[in-house]
Amino acid sequence: MTDNPTRHERLRPMELLGMAGVFGLFTGLIVLLSTRQPVLSAIFLGIAFIVGLVVLAMLSLASKPNSVERAEVTDANGRVKGLLEDPDEGDLPPRDLPRGH
User: Measured in Å, how far apart are the chain's first and last C-alpha atoms?
Assistant: First the structure.
């Protein structure tokens, strides 16, 4: 696999920023049309943008990875790469780890 991200992977953060911007503009426009106060509208625009950005980021983190993403984080044995591995061991069988009390 190549390390170069695809165009979709590179533009994914811009999609989230754009959708959060649309949420902010919509909220700011509604507040401006209902109150006729531009300062209050700008405040609500900023708040809606930040809240929309946080919500979209949390939803993207909560989504299930597809097969390509799962293949990137697992090795040939199906284990997660880098999890409880000693870089000096190589491909030795796993040790018995302490289980607690």
Answer: 43
**CA–CA dist 81, 16 (Å, integer):** 28
- What is the structure's pLDDT at 86? 54
pLDDT in tens, 13-41: 899 999 999 999 999 999 999 999 999 99
CB distance 28 to 19 below 8 Å? no
Return d(Cα 48, Cα 94) in angstroms, integer. 49
Helix axes 38-62, 7-35, angle to 10 degrees: 150
Residue 81 clears pLDDT 60, i.e. is over it: yes
DSSP state for residue 74 in the 8-state scheme: B
For tokens 């044995």, what's the residue?
Answer: 77
**CA distance readout (Å), 82 to 18, 55, 62, 67:** 34, 29, 21, 19
